Amino acid sequence: MRDRKSLYLWSIDEMLKSSYTKDLIEAGCDEAGRGCLAGPVVAAAVVLPKKFKHRWLNDSKVLTADQRNELKGEILQSAVSWAIGEVSNLEIDEINILNASFLAMHRALEKLEVIPQMVLVDGNRFKAYQSIPHQCIVKGDSIFLSIAAASILAKTHRDDLMTKFSAQYPGYKWETNMGYPTQEHRDGIRALGLTPLHRRSFQQLPGQMHLFEE
Fold this sequence. Notes:
Layout: H1 4-7, E1 26-32, E2 41-47, H2 65-78, E3 81-87, H3 89-95, H4 97-110, E4 118-122, E5 134-137, H5 145-168, H6 174-177, H7 183-192
Parallel strand pairs: 1-4, 4-5
Antiparallel strand pairs: 1-2, 2-3
Helix pairs in contact: 2-5, 3-4
């Protein structure tokens, strides 16, 4: 294992909270890929042990790829249950990205081997899953360990998918931008057009709506 000091730099005083409730089984949920021009939106649901502690687990956005991959292994080993949900670009175009994000989290929750009694969701909006109570928490992935764990699993899973897709559709630099609207990605769209993985409901290039025509 790598030297932890080179991977994690914040102090133990900044550890995230273990749980929102005292006794309920909680599942943390988060998604990745909501703002991308191509590929699916991916969500993860994670149930951690009730008094789980981790000094370095944090929001995936403040971690490097090496840190995320290191922590992914620890999450998979420690979690009581975890699951991934995906919603394709075609589904996103049909139901919109907000509803697709909710659906991805629902798909992750329904695959959990342990039924949660409370769902903790990163953000300020969520569509209730079955009859399970939920709590939306703005920046929850930097407050609660289960949401942070979900953010890491969703991000690493989606990054792996987009890296594989980049080999199938070269020229868009998905292996580095993961489908987000970077200059290189948009240069690829200008040169090559749209792939079957692009989200037609998103504005890919301003003033070039012909790209959406079949």
